Amino acid sequence: MTPLLEVDGVSRSFGSVPALVNASLTVERNSITALIGPNGSGKTTLFNVITGNLRADTGRVRFDGHDVTTARPAALYRRGLSRTYQQARVFSQLTVEENLVVAGGFGLAQLFGRRVNRRDRQRATELIDEFRLGRVADLPAAELSYGQRKLLEFAAVLMSSPTLILLDEPTAGVNPVLIETMEHHIRRLHAAGITFLIVEHDMNVVMRLCDPVVVLDQGREIFTGPPDAVREHPAVLDAYLGA
Amino acid sequence: MVQGVILGVLTAGVYALMASGQTLIFGIMRVVNMAQGAMVILGAYLSYQLFTSFGVDPFLAIPATTAVMFTVGVAVQLIFLRPLHQDDRTQLSVLVTFAVALLLEGVMSVLWSTSDRSINTGYVNASWTVLGYQISLVRLWAFLLSLVALGLLHVLLRRTRFGRAVRASVQNPESARLLGVDADRIAAIGFGLGAATAAAAGSVYGLLYPFNSGSHYDLISQLLSIVVLGGLGSIGGAVVGSLVISVSTAVVASAFSPIWAPMTFFVVLLSVLLIRPRGLFGTAARGAL
Amino acid sequence: MRMRRGVGPVRAAVFFLVLAVAPTFGLAHWLLTMLVFTLMFAVMASAWNLLGGFTGYPSLGHVAFFGIGAYAVVLWFQHHDISSGYEPFLLLPAIGLGVALVGLPIAAIAMRTRADVFAIVTITLLFVGQTLAFNLRDITGGAQGASIVPAPFPADSYEIPFYDALVVLLAVSMGLTWATMRSKVGLSLAAVRMDEDKAAGIGVRVQTVKLLAFCVSVGLTAMIGGIWAYYEGFIYPQFAFDPLISVAMVLMTFLGGRATLWGPVLGAFILELAQQYFAYSLGGSRFYLIAYALVFLVVILVMPRGILPSVRDRLWRRGRRRIVDAQLPAGDGPL
Known about the structure:
The structure holds three protein chains of three kinds.
Chain A: E1 5-14, E2 17-27, E3 32-36, H1 43-50, E4 58-63, E5 66-67, H2 73-79, E6 81-83, H3 96-101, H4 108-111, H5 118-130, H6 146-157, E7 164-168, H7 176-191, E8 195-199, H8 203-209, E9 213-217, E10 220-225, H9 227-230, H10 234-241
Chain B: H1 2-29, H2 36-54, H3 58-81, H4 89-112, E1 127-130, E2 133-136, H5 137-159, H6 161-171, H7 173-178, H8 183-208, H9 215-230, H10 235-255, H11 261-275
Antiparallel strand pairs in B: 1-2
Helix pairs in contact in B: 1-5, 1-8, 1-9, 1-10, 2-3, 2-4, 2-8, 2-9, 3-8, 5-6, 5-8, 9-10, 9-11, 10-11
Chain C: H1 7-21, H2 29-55, H3 62-79, H4 87-110, H5 115-135, H6 137-140, E1 146-147, H7 160-182, H8 184-201, H9 206-232, E2 234-235, H10 237-240, H11 243-256, H12 263-282, H13 285-302, H14 307-322
Antiparallel strand pairs in C: 1-2
Helix pairs in contact in C: 2-7, 2-9, 2-11, 2-12, 3-4, 3-5, 3-9, 4-9, 7-8, 7-9, 11-12, 12-13
């Protein structure tokens, strides 16, 4: 069986600054793959290339056996690839429920149907329960805390039953209780068959949650392996300690 | 045809100067200045007034008009643009500068009425004939002056501390702030500079064309097309954009009919956007000056 | 919102009932004329709101479509007879549809980029329209203007057919706005306005809804242009493509409240009546332009969200303290 996601020799520069240099990465089906690396190593750029937000200069991206190198974010979303953003991008003037509904299905019939139809409402209500957002369900997202917004953005990508979710720093800037909540949801969804690719700074979270771990440095992939091997690997130590 | 190209290139100089101010303002603040055309016309009126009341030659009036317009520009930034809420700044700033354009139009029509004015110096109709083609002297001088002004702007942005600060905040506002660049000050001075280039261009514009308080609509739509064509925020792009637009307009006007000339730049604009939505030299999100 | 269901339709019914019966009270001509113009602007602001208010793409060139609609009526009736006087009104839907189709390719290109580039393309379009109207003399009569056969309505009730047609169009445009807000189209447009890239990334049909909003918006605007031309009887390029009409649509929408049902209509009633007053008291159009610009600046700087959202926000905050779970979204609930 082919891997769910294959990134093959992708390069991308901004002007004369290379952000990715011949980077490769494989995400096996039903894994929780971590993508780590020092600041500026190209993690977010790689995310953007995978999701179609940025075009690769060279190299290929395959998702679920299809070449999606030049696919747009919307097309990838329909194929089952969703992402969250580091800054938790939610629609601040829409309510929590609407934020979920807007990520639901978009057949033309639905588009001209009710703002919140029965099927969407049902799915949204389930997610609101699972993510314990019930108390704020009717509030505009602007009124939520940063952590709640992260949860909301995570919940919203589940409206479309994705097969692969890319999380960009899901635990950055949130309190320890919420970190546990995040981990809980990732494990739960992983058990239900969803694959994850996660950019994460908190090594404790990575150690507990992910396997394998991919390390990126200066736009190159320098290591792929199980979490306990990462800490001992000389190239990784070099990259982080700047030796 | 060749005559059309010559005319187009000479005109392009003046447009490049006006558009460089526009693109500078956009580069620094992400603000599309709808009042740039009105500022050019105000510059033209100022030098018209200096010429008719005191006999000052429009070319010599430029230091004075630029100084006045610099102040106007700084004032517009401080009073109208700085208080805007961050959320929908793009939309609001377009509307605010449009309102400023109307305000200037209103003020100008009160001060100078709405009839056409032109600056008639002794040399407006003088021309050289080179290889059988006519080259209007005023247009040549205007062209050279624009080149000088663009050169000065270039030196200012490349060689001075202020220029470095501007370029830093265009490329990365966050780190520029961390490096101690005062964004408000840069924005105010940047808007002032944009207005000052409008004044310089205005003096020249007044020599080349008759104008009235409503002329800025005509001007702003051409300026904006140039800037979009070149890629918002790129001064080099503004120069190329002016060349493309004024040469194609002049050629269409001389080869077919002046009626279709204004249509030309709209079609050029749409086709460029169709192929390159960010303009010829525009970069993804943040440009470089 | 859920608790106050039923208030909206009642409000709308009362409003349109008052509008419908108003002329039967034998209003003076000047008052009816004023109402005709106010209604024109109410429809246009409402139409502008569908695009500019809901999607956040600020069109500064809507009057280009107004002008096209106006010349369409004039041109058609240079070659066709008017007998009952109602023919131009019957032509309006065709004009709206035609202009919407003409607008489609322009919108498809202009909306590929960003809101600021869109504003630029639309203002350029306005200029091109104006120049063509001046220069294509064979068709438009150029600066000399073009005329249309006067409407054969009796003098003492001349305004009534125009008035009625405008009330119908206002009902149509508000009905469309209401339908938008209640459907997923409205939700999608709100998402586009707040974060278009994110919206595209979660499968929102960004392009479809943007183009739809644009076409409906310019179609309605063109229909008003047609009514205006017929009402005036004689049109000039500088009035058919007057940038101030574009400005008025924007300003009215901002004043009343973007992305609300009643905001643009409220804005139109306030501003158009104020405008008539200014025109009387300040005389010529020159000081009037300054006054207009100042109102514009003050509205945007002092109340950038407009009257209705600001008022609703205040009510909401008060209500929230009293009833914990009667929360209204501050965003787009129909008001």
